[in-house]
Amino acid sequence: MVDIFTFTGGSGGAWRVVESRTVKGEGLRAVESLAVAREPDDTAITSPAWTLRGFISNVRYATKTEVETLRSVQQGLARPRATLAALIPIRKNAAWWALAQDERREIFEETSHHTAIGLDYLPAVARRLHHSRDLGEPFDFLTWFEYAPEDAPAFDRLVDRLRATREWNYVDREIEIRLARAA
Amino acid sequence: MVDIFTFTGGSGGAWRVVESRTVKGEGLRAVESLAVAREPDDTAITSPAWTLRGFISNVRYATKTEVETLRSVQQGLARPRATLAALIPIRKNAAWWALAQDERREIFEETSHHTAIGLDYLPAVARRLHHSRDLGEPFDFLTWFEYAPEDAPAFDRLVDRLRATREWNYVDREIEIRLARAA
């Protein structure tokens, strides 16, 4: 059973776009709002500008200890106080994908501390990772974050720290879309 | 760019089914022949009984050393002498997919020596792995093998050894379809 989620930019979605910026590479057409849906999509969005798709999958780098720590600390999406969200689509370059598993793990965690950095902002910043590369999508990953307004500075620090890592040298396209729940 | 391959069972395909058996779990409808195509599929097959799909992706367990060893020894598909082939669709159970990356790697290689066993039969038995689970397919992996008639005993040993591993305790559905190039 595959869980495919769609992120559709347009008008009338449940999340209003507060700010959208191209961090690296080619941009995405600006939209007013975003709809997040699980396929088959039953969410109506007016005049969609684009749709990004990704699936939930098994963990690719986390060890047993890391998975257990994450599970003990993280909280789910859709918390009533988490009225802000962000969608960050990223693509990694060919050099990343040509690396062996141990080389990617080494950069991801031992050098860049990706999981450890994310843990520092749990449970405040909830996240869900969607894999897109194997669907032939324009991005490799779509990460969705939800947090309360008072945790927005924590979210800023989280993305700043990740972008400063060695892992991020392999990112060749990145968009950051900040959102707020539509009233 | 995603590389999706389709394996369609029916009549009139380029590979004639020599033998098909259900190793574990639910079977697949018996067919006369198989067509292998890269999507978008332009191969005509008469009255398809089923179609299995999978994509080529990055390595999931192999280390740099293992990848380099494999690359130095393996040969490509479609060698003129490799007139025999096999398609082995497998599915792993939920317990496997709930494991962390280090636990799966440990079972896959340190305990079960999956890559090492495959290496023992290179370059005789060429293989290509297709990932299906994240497409919501009935199987998790479709492995395609090609070999010359004189290497059929080596292929038999390869699959016997893999099925005797601890990793295979997690396989809950497996079909083995042996094929020969249609004249």
Task: Return the string of H and E elements of chain A.
Answer: EEEEHEHHHEEHE
Quickly name the level 1 CATH class of chain A. Answer: Alpha Beta
Beta strands of chain A, count: 8
Low-confidence stretches of chain A: none
- Rg calc of chain A: 16 Å
Distance between the termini of chain A: 33 Å
The CATH topology of chain A: Alpha-Beta Plaits
Average of per-residue pLDDT values of chain A = 95
Oligomer: homodimer
In total, the number of domains of chain A comes to 1
Instruction: Please work out how many helical segments of chain A DSSP would assign.
Output: 5
Strand content of chain A: 35-45%
Biggest pleated sheet of chain A:
8 strands, antiparallel
Shape of chain A: globular
Give me the side-by-side strand order of the main sheet of chain A: 4-1-3-2-8-5-7-6
CATH architecture annotation name of chain A: 2-Layer Sandwich
The greatest interface here is:
A-B, 27 and 27 residues
